[in-house]
Amino acid sequence: MLKIRLRRGGATHNPFYRIVVSDSLKTPSASTVEQLGHYDPKKNPADVKIDKARVEYWVSKGAQLSPTVKSILKKSK
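The structure assignment produced for this chain is given below.
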């Protein structure tokens, strides 16, 4: 099953996340199917860029949203 979740990047104490589609059985740092956007929580307000059309496409194909990504999507609307 595919999941839409966060993949952490950035330096120590300076996180940066990519919103990706990946296999739920693999670790978040494993290879991804597609990158859908990014999330930078250190900026005020948090910098969020998501391709919502692609999120809808992957959800229609059966991908599940992680709770954190679901929350980010709700806040970005």
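Interim note for the steering committee: The chain is about 25% helix and 45% strand. Residues 2-76 form a domain with the S16 Ribosomal Protein; Chain: A; fold (CATH 3.30.1320.10).
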